Amino acid sequence: MMKLHSKPYRALHARIYLYGETDSSIGEKVGLSEQKMSARMKGKCPFDAREMLLIGRELNFSQDEYYKFFIEPLGSIKGVSQ
């Protein structure tokens, strides 16, 4: 049986889509390769503060949205406790 990938950053993905972008295009704008952006969106590697800041600027995040899009999803990632 095939194991489905966890997608902890669904809300971030939706916001990216609403801005007419793709995960890859946003990753490229902030200096992440397609592979690195994919790993982050799947929760395999964390976003660092610089990446969060740059993505937030691209997508016009308010201060509260940084928490919504980057911190709240951590609760659904195996091995990460809040």
Written account of the structure:
52% of the residues lie in helices and 0% in strands. It has 82 residues and is mainly alpha-helical. Helix 2 packs across helix 3. It is globular, with a radius of gyration of 12 Å. The N and C termini lie far apart (31 Å).
Q: Mean of the pLDDT scores? A: 89
Classification by helices and strands: mainly alpha
Instruction: Quote the distance from N terminus to C terminus.
Output: 31 Å
The total of beta strands comes to: 0
Give the strand content.
under 5%
- Into which percent range does the helicity of residues fall? 40-55%
In short:
The chain is mainly α and 82 residues long. The chain has helices spanning 10-18, 23-29, 34-41, 49-58, 63-71.
List the keywords:
mainly alpha, 0% strand, 82 residues
Question: Helix and strand layout, with pairings?
Answer:
Layout: H1 10-18, H2 23-29, H3 34-41, H4 49-58, H5 63-71
Helix pairs in contact: 2-3
